[in-house]
User: Fold these one by one.
Assistant:
Number 1:
Amino acid sequence: MTLDADWAERWVRRTAEAVEAAKDELTELDRQIGDGDHGENLHRGFQAVVARLDAAAVEVSGLDTSDRPVGDVLKIVATTLMSTVGGASGPLYGTAFLRASKVSGRPQLDPSSVVALLEAALEGVASRGKAQVGEKTMVDAWQPAVDAAERAAQDGGDEIAVLRAAAEAADKAAHDTIPLVATKGRASYLGERSAGHEDPGARSTALLLGAAMAAALAGPDGGADGAAA
Amino acid sequence: MTLDADWAERWVRRTAEAVEAAKDELTELDRQIGDGDHGENLHRGFQAVVARLDAAAVEVSGLDTSDRPVGDVLKIVATTLMSTVGGASGPLYGTAFLRASKVSGRPQLDPSSVVALLEAALEGVASRGKAQVGEKTMVDAWQPAVDAAERAAQDGGDEIAVLRAAAEAADKAAHDTIPLVATKGRASYLGERSAGHEDPGARSTALLLGAAMAAALAGPDGGADGAAA
Amino acid sequence: MKKLLNNPADAVADSLAGFALAHADLVDVHRDPVYVSRKDGAVNGKVGLVSGGGSGHEPLHAGFVGDGMLDAAVPGAVFTSPTPDQILPALQAADGGAGVLAIVKNYTGDVLNFETAVELAEAEDLQVESVLVNDDVAVEDSLYTAGRRGVAGTLAVEKIAGAAAARGADLAAVADVARKVVANVRSMGVALAACTVPHSGRPSFDLADDEIEIGIGIHGEPGRHRVPMASADEITQALLDPVADDLTLVPGDRVLLFVNGMGGSPLSELYVVYGRARRLLEGRGVTVSRSLVGSYVTSLEMQGASITVLRLDDELEALWDAPVHTAALRW
Amino acid sequence: MKKLLNNPADAVADSLAGFALAHADLVDVHRDPVYVSRKDGAVNGKVGLVSGGGSGHEPLHAGFVGDGMLDAAVPGAVFTSPTPDQILPALQAADGGAGVLAIVKNYTGDVLNFETAVELAEAEDLQVESVLVNDDVAVEDSLYTAGRRGVAGTLAVEKIAGAAAARGADLAAVADVARKVVANVRSMGVALAACTVPHSGRPSFDLADDEIEIGIGIHGEPGRHRVPMASADEITQALLDPVADDLTLVPGDRVLLFVNGMGGSPLSELYVVYGRARRLLEGRGVTVSRSLVGSYVTSLEMQGASITVLRLDDELEALWDAPVHTAALRW
Ligand SMILES: Nc1ncnc2c1ncn2[C@@H]1O[C@H](COP(=O)(O)OP(=O)(O)O)[C@@H](O)[C@H]1O
Ligand SMILES: Nc1ncnc2c1ncn2[C@@H]1O[C@H](COP(=O)(O)OP(=O)(O)O)[C@@H](O)[C@H]1O
Ligand SMILES: [Mg+2]
Ligand SMILES: [Mg+2]
Ligand SMILES: [Mg+2]
Ligand SMILES: [Mg+2]
């Protein structure tokens, strides 16, 4: 199992599917403490990403793409999200993918490169959003995911182990945003009333990282979890 | 039992009470096939009438009013309704009382004078509203009331018998407007959809004529039906 | 019922009090009896214009008092025609010596109360002409109805007659141009949700979540047909076609297209209706040379819209374009 | 959900298409990417003004494009900030060689997307200044929030900065006067009923029949407090007092009082609020010298209103009075 540009494509296509499936759930979370558009925003963005990747796939079909840098795919994702999502999450996810693309110039990612990718993404979100852990934003999912990925890599885990650690940590961490009082983003306007609801951006981060792991597990031809990429 | 100016006062004061009690019912009827203000319109108007009569009562208190023309009271009612009710019913009831006042110049009304009063009122409504029987308006209550009053007088009935005939006919006739399709007034805009609802103006006419009879029955000191005027 | 109101009985008075303060440069608001007149009174030698009717249609009519439009407006209780004792002083206040045009929407109540007031005014040697506005094609104009209602087309009558008066036309000429507008303007409306009259506290009719009323008036009356909810394009066509047909528009005609909100529908939706109505008119070979989009002739907080089309010629177009300076319409 | 819409996904596009047709004399509406610019492009030598944000607040911002106000507006999806690829061409279209002022409401999304666009514009040698509008006193401006939101006060910033630009002030001066407005304007709003975002189909929050939300924003977000329904006088005081206190108004101050409808409340109710707010200000010894009443910065069909107070001096008053000719504001 190698994490190459094809994996990156599978990752974002799976994210698009996951977002589509969870669109109403994300929107409902955002309706509780925001403005009820997060599902629609990400759906619009990842549909556009898929369309861009489809178009790019036609261009490169027949060419040997085995040494295509992973970052090339991530950069397409970044610019597409930036120009189609809007809202707060568009620039935030856009910056995450842009920074990730910059540290993913090689055609294959080893465990430490995966950690570097995630660290760069987190750094992008946190610096763009000027947010820290505990403010009830997507940073509250990204930070534990990065921490867990770093530990998994230090423990000698392979790429999949690293991604699994990140995904599982993000999923739990998204849930853990429920009691928090928001101090960044639109939910902060609610003050204390923001407590008791999961942060939509933290939930979508968990979906994104879950898709990264699933794409790795599935392999180029569908593979382990049975779903075609 | 004589029908004098005091009776006329009792009549309109009782009408004010009846309208107050039936305000919501009249408004609801008007909501079905009109614009939902008939109860409020008449309530505003008859409250103003009562206030005017109260003020006038202070002026004349102590004076001998036994030869006061019945029409004097009716004229106050007419001008007050015209300047406070608005809508269609204001000018219509206003004209009815104005015409009625003109034929009620004497201080006492005998049965044929009562019939003349009612005929004049009907003539006022019908000419002002250019409405005929069957158009689902207050004319559909006034006309049968006048017809019944005429018959009662021809049959030798006294004032009370005449008013009773008018009141009972109006009450039944108001009910009989239910199946009609309106061709005058606001309800006519509904076309066929106006059928199946009682006309609010016909109902308020029945209230008005019911109050005329009750005021006659009650006499100057409360009397027969036990309610003070 | 949730409204930004105090005692429902004071709804009109409280609103007019705020209106008076906000537009003290344009109007005087009189109480007891209630009417609104332009600041500094009638214009000497100019034909005066007066309109009025029940309240609940704001900015109509008080919002149209000012240079180039009305000289006085007479607001009744909510959805209830004003009384002659209100209308009479408004007619007098509007008279600058050249007579007064009363613009009356065709409702039994408005007609009867204005009739009485005009009689009283004439008895005091005021010269008054009346024009009846009846632009609503939802109501059949036949022996079997009270005739078509006056709805949003009233704005066009007031604007254009107001411009004619401002230009110095005499009473007969102002009345003529007003009647010319009436002859060339048609409207039809839809409600997505009813409105609630303050003192009643109940919606004026009950609509299911998937129903709309086509052919409504501006008093919360139910419409002519209750139909299933449809797309903006379909609804627009259901309103525009009867309007255009009744006007017998032919290719080459030039019109004003006015999409009016009923009070509770957002401007963004009115533009959707406008866009579709315009394409439908263009599909008939009709040129839309003037446009107005906004909530000007409303029915409290009713959700919905109406479409008004006025056939233009050079005269009407120039009068429409003439300057106007009122609280709600200004150019 | 009943709205005058076709496919909810096309809500913004359909509405803009109608807007473009209705106001072809004032604006050009561009697609792909979507932005609105004034007819005939940037004015040579004049500082350009650009604003933008999510749609659903109409007439803000596109309705304010024209002489004396904005040169371009950038509408995002409903309640969703526009993207940098829309904002960049709008900045470019607004540039008449004297630089561009970007007026940004303080929302994380608007701030981030404008930031990116401004960076891109600067990379292409466009001179851009940004001003952040944050007039909503319902939100505490502290380390523990994203800061106060920009709401209806944005209209005042756009009008006054637009007038300064029209008079020929340079970019720094236009930005300064815009910041002066920001420093002197405060707002607070109330919702009687929520709004429904077209693609969601559900009300943005659920309110009981006897509850209102105080301190709402303009995106259907719930407010700061949910309280029992109250009279217009009480609600007005609950909005006006925090606004006046935060502005530290003192006797002798002169202000603009702007009562803004949220989209679904009738004008008549706004005047009730206006009247009460005015008396409250006068009770504080404050003079209301300018007024605006209407639905200008809306939240779809939300029922409710906001109160905005801007402390005036001679400069701001003169710029407010300066001529403006846009689809939604004109004098
Ligand atoms: N300053 C910030 N830093 C990090 N994440 C943020 C910040 N502000 C908002 N977010 C994230 O964005 C999510 C909302 O995204 P979205 O609904 O698409 O945008 P908007 O709030 O503009 O409607 C929040 O749930 C939160 O996770
Ligand atoms: N042309 C008419 N002739 C006689 N009665 C009429 C006419 N038009 C309306 N009415 C009566 O007036 C009643 C409505 O009164 P009201 O609701 O107070 O006035 P509006 O219709 O102006 O709201 C109707 O129920 C009907 O009985
Ligand atoms: Mg959101
Ligand atoms: Mg009625
Ligand atoms: Mg009425
Ligand atoms: Mg948003």
Note: The domain at 3-216 of chain B is CATH 1.25.40.340 (Serine Threonine Protein Phosphatase 5, Tetratricopeptide repeat).
Number 2:
Amino acid sequence: MFKKILIANRGEIAVRVIRAAKELGIQTVAVYSTEDKDSMHVKLADEAICIGPAEAKKSYLHLFNIAQAIANSGCDAVHPGYGFLSENPNFVRICDDLGVEFIGPDAETMERLADKAKVKAILDENGIPTVPGSSGSIDDESSLIEVANRIGYPLLLKASWGGGGKGMRVVRKESELIDSYRAAKLEAKASFGRDDIYIEKFIEHPRHIEVQIIADEFGNIVHIGERDCTLQRRHQKLLEESPSPVLKEYTRKKLHHTAVEAAKVLGYKNAGTMEFLFDGEDFYFIEINTRIQVEHPVSEMCFGIDLIKEQINVSAGYELSFMQSALKPEFHVIECRINAEDPDKFYPFPGTIEGLYIPGGPGVRVDTAVACGTKISPYYDSMIAKLIVRGNSREEARKRMLRCLDEFVIEGVKTTIPFFQRLLTTNDFINNNYDTNFIDKKFLGST
Amino acid sequence: MFKKILIANRGEIAVRVIRAAKELGIQTVAVYSTEDKDSMHVKLADEAICIGPAEAKKSYLHLFNIAQAIANSGCDAVHPGYGFLSENPNFVRICDDLGVEFIGPDAETMERLADKAKVKAILDENGIPTVPGSSGSIDDESSLIEVANRIGYPLLLKASWGGGGKGMRVVRKESELIDSYRAAKLEAKASFGRDDIYIEKFIEHPRHIEVQIIADEFGNIVHIGERDCTLQRRHQKLLEESPSPVLKEYTRKKLHHTAVEAAKVLGYKNAGTMEFLFDGEDFYFIEINTRIQVEHPVSEMCFGIDLIKEQINVSAGYELSFMQSALKPEFHVIECRINAEDPDKFYPFPGTIEGLYIPGGPGVRVDTAVACGTKISPYYDSMIAKLIVRGNSREEARKRMLRCLDEFVIEGVKTTIPFFQRLLTTNDFINNNYDTNFIDKKFLGST
Amino acid sequence: MDLKSLKDLMRFVEKSQFVEFEYKDDEIHIMLKKKEAFVGDNIVTQAPQPVAVETREQKQQLDKEVVEERMGEKKEKGAKEGLVEIKSPMVATFYRAPSPTSSPYVEVGDEVKKGATLCILEAMKIMNELEAEFPCKIEQILVKNGQKVEFDQPLFLVKRLD
Amino acid sequence: MDLKSLKDLMRFVEKSQFVEFEYKDDEIHIMLKKKEAFVGDNIVTQAPQPVAVETREQKQQLDKEVVEERMGEKKEKGAKEGLVEIKSPMVATFYRAPSPTSSPYVEVGDEVKKGATLCILEAMKIMNELEAEFPCKIEQILVKNGQKVEFDQPLFLVKRLD
């Protein structure tokens, strides 16, 4: 096992990794910007090295300084957390050069999987469902009809050289196809000077559902169930839950199986996430995230495992501590990301935490790096806490979450707590009646 | 279901009950002394009624004021928490008179079970093992030998009219019996004027192990596993865990079965605890607690249930929400009681919480009513937080507990955190090598 | 405060019996302690002494403010004009008269003697008469007839007449 | 309050019975204590409170020391005497000389010109020369040869000569 891990991150995820390392008896090294001198990850780690000024690109993104901090610290492994350098293959190579283990996939895998088109092509070849479409522009109306029939309706016609919705047409049935195609061509020509058009399946009310997987060096690849992350604001996840309330048991099993297959096909190692869109019947792979994610506690709480410890174990060359058959989802879990933001307009709201009461009791987990007196810096992400609750049913979890949101006291900055209180009491949330556009339409449209 | 519950308690247990009630959609009424005006349970409840000055006997123990508060509040149920009035049958009768449900057993049961000798006799009759002994004084040496052989060695000879260790003799084998008996008689005569002697089984290294049970009005009685509460300081529990690390699977099952049988024999309803001593081979019933206990979260976390919600459900006339067969212990759980006390001498240390960081992360629960700025009053119990962790093994739980104790920051008062840090790193704790005298001998003897 | 006034003040305190003097502004906070104040502390053995005492004082101050806010009253005024609150010694229902048809025991503006009944506090079916502990003039009645009251809740604002 | 008034006041207190005197502004806060005020404290032996206060003070002191140690600075002194710290602009290893056999770039007491090399900061096998940004006199070298340094860590305490 490793002797000393350097955590190339800050905030709650740095604290999270320090916790796992401590429980494994591993020494920890924090890195920090001058802005973060008094922050929790610096206090909790055994050692701390200042790596630059407040701006992330001069500190947490500064390969050179972090590399030297790794060298100076004498660590034998590095955990990247999420964000910052966590998906930068050059950082992985630097770790390799320094002779320390990067806790995550290897550089080659990371680089290979960053090319989304290539990943899609590989998965297509291997029978993993991706969002269906023509493999290039459609040149004539007969092949248009042919491809359209293969993909099925509704369809999306898109300008190959376009953007911003121009030249885009939703086609709901075959009788509209030719007219829409011609209109789209004309519009594309007018807008972009070229009239090339391609087709993609139109997913009208997509749910974002992802599958957590983890793989070791011994060929074991297991999934830790799915997370439903449909509730997003401008593609930023706000609330995640597991299991997804919209999957039927048969579809859920197929999804899990597909995610594991995809990981095998892609030769993936360590913890990763397979993201899918779900249209109510079928699911389509969209991308793989080659790192631990913000919402990993949802799966941890649902299955009673510790993903960070497993990541460390796997990276140190050990076998996964569980088999697929031993993993049973025990609870319904919901996570709310508590951001220091105006709860109506969602702009960041830095400041100092002047009063704090963190909810507790049964089935509640709060991951945070803030304490009474902590300064929320405008330089970094506005997420200040993850509030995760479990229940024996979705309804119990929902009520528990409302109870916790009500209990949670954060004084000194505005937070998204009031937003979640509204969200969790809407009928649409209670009845699962939403898609990825829900918050943008219902909450941002109205304010 | 109830509409409004009054919580006749303070501190973390009041907060705990408020949480459960909120999640069930029930309104809550806090009662408080003038000393507790700003405390958390007052803030979290929907209503709050001041019931007297700081001294408990004029407020939290003041039947008259609490009764009137119940009447004034218009509540339809009362939760007593633990301590204070929770085992006072008169309080139950007052609730009956006021037409509100007391969440716990009925007055008759509570009164009946308070008579320990009677309970012991009933259980003896029904084949439930209690600490074996002669049913009265032993008058002659032949019956002495007979009874001694029935009970087995080691034995304790005790003066029927004595106390304080005088006239007490441990007898380890039959050859010592007669001499010890004669000596004890002489000593008893000299000390107390009467030489009546009785025998009891001597449990040399007792472990305190208790079984949580809960019963509804439909005849369902289930156990929620056992808790090992051997680590006590002067009969005050400091650390509890589940499952007990000293029980073999066969004994554990027998213990659980016995506890349920005892509850049936005693006609018990609602949540209760059967306390046993365990001598390494056999267990002996010592008493029943007719209320929820401080350490109930240990069982909640081990089994993934909510005992307070179940208590409320059962009192409202609903069936238990689970059956015995559905209850499986998922984790090893350890709880440390964090008291505002000097960690060496254990005297209370009231003051104001000036800095606070509460540990979090996976598998951690903290039940507390304190926040930054809270005043710890000298008038009430010194327990300020319960830190409960789970792990997939005892060792993982132990390491997680140490990680959390290390993270826990409480400034302004001394706490028992340093004591637990020492305790959990002793070989004796790691190897389960302790009995109920351990802390008094090893930790208090040395300071 | 200029230097002269300050020195003046100090001279005054120096000559006084007070061994400790504190003064804050605005608005006011004075604390004066005689030697005996500390001797007392010493005798009370078990409590965590001097600091605790101060803390409690501060706390009470705070508490009072909280209560006042809760009660929606204007204490500053009261305090300045030498008014006193008469508080409920129990959880009860407040009645101004002995029966629904009787006239109230007291009205605003009444001057009452020590021992006069001010109201009925009904608790657990028992009618408790609350008596004036000192002669006073009723300035304000702070709760309504039939209102439920908690322990320590101010019932009357009065001016002492002794 | 001007210096004269202050001295005046000090003389006054010095001659008085007061063993403790506090005065704040604005707006005002005075506290005066005579010797007797403390007798209490001394006699109360068992109470845990005063100790706690000390502990807290010690802790703050400790914290300060820790920070200073971490930063390797003596800020009070430095600030008072108009000294300036030259800090590390990167995470690196600090070398006083270009090679183990060479003599150090600078010694305590040296006066160096703007642009003069002060030390080598080695990071990722690259030798970075740290140059003086202004003429200065080296008052103290705060890290040892070969020591690992973090970003912003003070390396030299110097007196500016411009």
Note: Chain B has a mean pLDDT of 93.
